[in-house]
Amino acid sequence: VFVFVFVFLFVCLFPLTYRSRNIEQAPIGAGMTCGQTLQGQTCNSEECSADCIVSPFGEWSECSAPCGGGGKSRTRTILSPASGNGRGCPVLGQEAPCNNQPCTNDCIQTEWSDWTECSKSCGGGTRTQTRQVARSPVGSGLACGPSTQTQACNTEQCSVNCVWSAWGQWTDCSEDCAKDGAYGTQSRSRSVQTAAANGGIECSGPSEETQVCNTQACPVDCQLSHFSPWSECSATCGGGRKSRTRTVLTPASGGGKDCSSMTVQSRSCNSDVCPVDCAVTEWSDWTECTRSCGGGSASRTRTVVREAANEGAPCPALTEELSVPCNNFPCSADCQVSEWGEWEDCPVECGESIHSRSRTLIQESLGSGVLCGEMTESRTCVAAPWSARFALFCVDSPSPP
Fold this sequence. Notes:
Blueprint: H1 2-13, E1 16-20, E2 38-42, E3 53-54, E4 70-75, E5 78-80, E6 93-98, E7 108-109, E8 125-130, E9 133-135, E10 148-153, E11 163-164, E12 184-189, E13 192-194, E14 208-213, E15 223-224, E16 240-245, E17 248-250, E18 264-269, E19 279-280, E20 299-301, E21 304-306, E22 319-321, E23 336-337, E24 351-358, E25 361-363, E26 376-383
Antiparallel strand pairs: 1-2, 3-5, 4-6, 7-9, 8-10, 11-13, 12-14, 15-17, 16-18, 19-21, 20-22, 23-25, 24-26
């Protein structure tokens, strides 16, 4: 029977084959938990009715707090899930409280540091030393002590050196200037401001001192001669300058009044406006002759550059004609005369005589032009008084041409 049951359990209830391993180091604190220590795989996988099989619980984990109440846990794994009508798997994890005792840690501090330098070299100073908190107290642990402590140092009295006050102001000088080589004097003083004590250095040097002052010679004012006569004016009109001078008879010394800059005087003169003469340009070139022959005329001009002002010299003539004709040579031209005039009356009342007529010259013959003819001509005339008895009168007979 025992063998049968074993075979049944092995074949149906535990259709697995297993392997295992041991825990060499359990997890500590927040370290990783160990994996499975037992591993199985199916065999004889035909369906059986079997309960779930789990491994034993693993080790408890580290407590989450060293004191004051923490928690820990452990787990187990499913080795074989339930099959058929077998029972399901139980809870795989467990938690439990741990380290419920109250926490208690005493304060831990570092060693004291070296003493600092004393705050004074004498007369009572202080020095300090410090330490740091390495771990603060927990629960009912001992509290930390002071982090700083101070003690007196160099308590002996200091020596005090003598201290002079500042020098006072110099007194007024006894003289304003050096008279006959004798200088003035002035003094100043000081007093002990702090007396020496406790072996300090005593004050040295005088409490009063004197010095010479106003060593300059007494002032002598500059002396000048009389002015010379005024010089000639630098311009005859339009405003000029004239001056006069004087010399230094006694130079200033010892801060006396200087007069070296007062040796020359000048003033304006001849300020009336200067006359301004008229100014003209040079003559232009001569113009073309008005005639090419027979004598013509030509002219040239100039313009005013500056008008006369203030009674200055007036402008000269701005136009000039040639003093002799230009192109003064004969032109080639025919003689031109007027028509003949009327015959003069016969100079006698009756009988035969000579009478004439004339013409005037319009243009003389020039060069190779045609010469003029006769300007007068004559002929015989006959005149007879009226006679009622003879009914006769003088008849003109033409003279030969």
